[in-house]
Amino acid sequence: MTVAPTEQDRSAVQSALDALAAESTDFGTPLPVLDDGQRNQLAALGPLYREWNARINVISRKDIDQFFTRHVLHSLTIARVLRPESGARILDVGTGGGFPGIPLAIVFPEVHFTLCDSIGKKIKVVNAVSQALGLGNVDGTWARAESLTDREPYDFVISRAVTRMPAFLDWVRPLVGVEHRHGLQNGVLYLKGGDLEEELAPVQEPIVSWDLGTLLQDPFFDTKRLLHVALG
Description:
Elements (H helix, E strand, L loop, with lengths): L6 H14 L15 H20 L5 H4 L2 H10 L12 E5 L7 H7 L4 E6 L2 H14 L4 E5 L13 E5 L4 H8 L14 E7 L3 H4 L6 E5 L12 E7 L2
Parallel strand pairs: 1-2, 1-4, 2-3, 4-5
Antiparallel strand pairs: 5-7, 6-7
């Protein structure tokens, strides 16, 4: 499979990294500095997903033209607030074709990522993309999150709007470990848009919310938020 990125892919990666490098007292800190290899891996996501999407529709047709903004940049906003220690374990629930897990696995190569989804063809894409990029820290798992209770506990669970938050927390509470060794307390990092006041009202755990629109100057992010729910 061809993975050579175009100049447009490289430019899109640079634009995403520039956006995430902005100073914002309301939204974490700039990303760690990425080396050339990591930048190349991010750029290679473009041709990889274009080719796979032609075979298996893992990304909506209207989004593929905005791939780096709506999938890569969106995923990497988590890295504004998360600095996992080496050896951390992160679970991506309902990963689809690999988001937010694969971009974050590129940024944090010393962290182990399990990407799970209940649809087997999507995990096929996850594993193929991970292999093509040489990501040894990604494990694509065809399973529902609720079935992973026999695994070693995870430090964080990440996801993009799989379901309403109360139901999601019921799925993943048993999967999060109680030993906190990161700057951010173990728990859930969840990307979701819209008016969340009613949805979050039943949640008893502490929640921190960041407005993506305050950092990213693109209308796509105007109503989108990153939520942290402390667990464990």
